[in-house]
Design goal:
Number of strands: 2
Helix content: 55-70%
Strand content: under 5%
InterPro entries: RNaseH-like_sf (IPR012337)
Organism: Crotalus adamanteus (Eastern diamondback rattlesnake)
Protein name: SCAN domain-containing protein 3
Oligomer: single chain
Order of helices and strands: HEHHEHHHHHHHHHHHHHHHHHHH
Structural class: mainly alpha
Strand order of the largest sheet: 1-2
Length: about 375
């Protein structure tokens, strides 16, 4: 972490930029040292005229700006057809009906225990937590029979009938959101690069196309939950589901167009096995030399031509994962009892986020527990 500063007044793009610029100026760091900027797509960050990125590009014209790939993938996951969105709304309403009432929650837990279910509770879904939808639906379909039994015993006839109507949609959504959940986790991490994210996104798009093709043939092997009720799945259902998968694929291609168009050569992924003859002529000799070099850490100095071509793919952060980790740390530090801590100046946040392991034994040895009298 470089720094963390509280915004005194507003959170407009100009205020954010002035705060960053002030810190860089105070510490004699040229703004031109900024190679790339990853944002979450908020208007104050990416606004065309008044966003932080717009002001940054005035100072650093060649800066590479990246919309966090995790945020983009989350936006794609929200893309549902009218019927699927309606079905998801009914499912969420049923979950909330049980979870929002303490008595209902206790009765449902007891019912799950009596039915020897693997789970005894449902999980709430919230838009704030990106991965909650997949886990929430997975628990719902696992406890589907108990949910129906619960509402039947409570004379919730209307909601019970609606849940039976959207059963196929629920099981399909559980499968597809499980895949989004897995991809989301793959995109997260402190050491992710644009090269790695491009591979993950490209693979997922190919999988969506394959899933769509197999679903039209009524091949449910890749849909574990839907496969368990495949006899109830109608041709109309498969058409709707395949149409949804196709729209997801198109949306992924549109939102990740810049990532997919990045030129990533084989030698960038593995310089030791790539075909040297296919590489750029300015890098061929360096590629040959690097295979016999045991000091790869000096690459920016010894192999400058290769570094010029690859640094823009390795240095930028493709996600805002580290920032989100910082927010999580703040929530952990700033409890109700410690809400007046000035963590941006005290160093609490830096200490929480650092990967440096303190030498406790050395620190203890340098400390005198009790001074001499």
């Amino acid at each position: 972490m470089l720094f963390a500063i509280n915004l005194i007044t507003d959170t407009r793009g100009l205020s954010i930029f002035n705060t960053v610029k002030s810190y860089f100026t105070k510490n004699n760091i040229p703004l031109n040292n900024i190679v790339a900027c990853a944002t979450d797509g908020a208007p104050s960050m990416v606004g065309r005229y008044r966003g932080f990125v717009a002001y940054l590009k005035e100072e650093v014209p060649n800066v590479l700006c990246i919309h966090c790939v995790v945020h983009r993938q989350h936006l794609v996951g929200k893309h549902l057809s009218t019927s699927l969105h309606s079905s998801l709304t009914i499912i969420i309403r049923a979950i909330n009906k049980i979870k929002s009432n303490a008595k209902n929650d206790r009765i449902f837990r007891q019912l799950c225990q009596d039915n020897n279910e693997d789970f005894i509770t449902l999980l709430l879904q919230t838009e704030v937590q990106w991965l909650s939808k997949g886990t929430s639906l997975a628990c719902f379909v696992a406890l589907y029979d108990s949910v129906i039994q619960f509402f039947e015993s409570n004379n919730e006839t209307n909601l019970c009938q609606q849940l039976k109507t959207v059963k196929n949609d629920a099981f399909y959504l559980a499968d597809i959101f499980k895949r989004f959940h897995d991809v989301n986790l793959q995109l997260q991490g402190a050491n992710k690069t644009l090269i790695g994210c491009q591979s993950i996104v490209s693979l997922f798009i190919e999988k969506l196309e394959l899933l769509c093709y197999n679903l039209l043939k009524r091949e449910f092997h890749q849909f574990p939950e839907l496969s368990s009720i495949k006899d109830d799945v109608t041709p109309e259902d498969t058409d709707r589901f395949s149409s949804h998968l196709n729209k997801l694929k198109l949306d992924m291609e549109k939102r990740f167009e810049d990532i997919l168009k990045l030129k990533v050569y084989d030698w960038m992924k593995n310089p030791f096995t790539a075909n040297i003859e296919e590489a750029d002529t300015t890098c061929q000799e360096e590629l040959l030399e690097i295979r016999y070099d045991e000091e790869i850490k000096k690459m920016p100095v010894l192999y400058s031509n290769m570094w010029k071509m690859i640094f823009s793919l390795l240095i930028p952060f493709p996600t805002s994962y580290l920032v989100e980790s910082g927010f999580s740390a703040i929530n952990h530090i700033m409890t109700k009892e410690r809400n007046r801590l000035n963590i941006s100046e005290r160093g609490d946040l830096r200490l929480c986020l650092t990967k440096i392991e303190p030498d406790i034994q050395y620190l203890v040895s340098q400390h005198q527990p009790q001074g001499s009298h």
